[in-house]
Amino acid sequence: MFQNQTFTSRYFDGVSAVPEEGTVLVHGQTIDFSSAETAHKLNVSQFAEFTLTHKGCKLVLRPDESKESPVLEIICSKSDAKQFESLWIQSKKNQSHAHAFFYSIREMNPIVLGGLSIVIVAIIGFFYFKGLELVTNLIPVSMDKSLGESVQMKMDAQFQECNTKATDRFFSEALKKIVPKGSPHQFKVSVIGSTIPNAFALSNGKIYFFSGLLNDAKSQEEVIGVLAHEVAHIEKRHHMRNLVKAGGTSLAISLVVGPGLGNMEFLETFTEIGSTILVLKFSRDFETEADVTSIEYLRNQNLSPSGLLTFFKRMQELEKESMESEDNPPDANAKDDEVVTKSLTDFLSTHPATEERMKTLASLIESGKKGTIKKVVSDKTWKDVQSVCLDFKNSDSK
Asked: Which family does it belong to (predicted)?
């Protein structure tokens, strides 16, 4: 590799801060260092570390933290430094199979190595998060109930329900048709007096409907479609799965970044952002799964699945109206309502875009059996359902 070439070099003995100036001559795996006062014969494999420098390369004899290690600096061109590195790597590869594997990776092209690293991390990440799904199966459903009950206590203390006999009858009949047989959950629906056209579910089977959704609904099947969606969230254990994945994501990032970040605040921020993005993605996946599952529930009872699609069409119209009115300053009452709306519906940012969900639902409805439009309750009872909480809201606004 080096035929009778000598290179200017400096040797630090690990004791004195003043280096010995001299030259090196390479014979196979042996490096001969000579100076005016001393001579050292060193084997390439003896050096624990090799580093390329702007003047050539540097070889560290041993990784000893207790005292300074002897260091040999060789002044040479970049091409010669690369040859020194290849010689050093080859000597390390000959020591053991583990060294051969590790130093073969070091020899790889940085671009190829980077691409390979991304692929390996992606594969590990895929199986890691798939494993988290299996972890959820080991958690008993009783934990879902406990989790939901703790949230329900806060909800019931903060908001006033305005259920009526009509709403109790409607949702009771609807749940009998939607909930799959053998479900381990006990479902119950409560209505909250609010103009927000929305609904959400807790992991213990408690479902909350905002009266605005009932008041503005165009048909029974629209509300039934939303109810089926919320039942699907509970049956698919989305609350617990999201909790497990969120915890798993935080753990994985913490293991990669490592403890003891010190003043490296940007890494902590990166960890938080990474966790947030992934958790939001999980929520979007769950929303899509709930949409698909709700269609299955409705078709199993030969009910029309188009109600949920109708609901999203109305939501899309409301979104457009909201965007158009953003520049108009709200009055005091509207502003208060806006604050309540925001505090209760921030979680909607985790949902897929309305347009995206409508396309998915339209495709599912088109590809399967249509089902029939069935009335769960009589027109009179439905009219009572749609007028629920109106008195409550009127008195609340005075």
From this structure: Belongs to the peptidase M48 family.
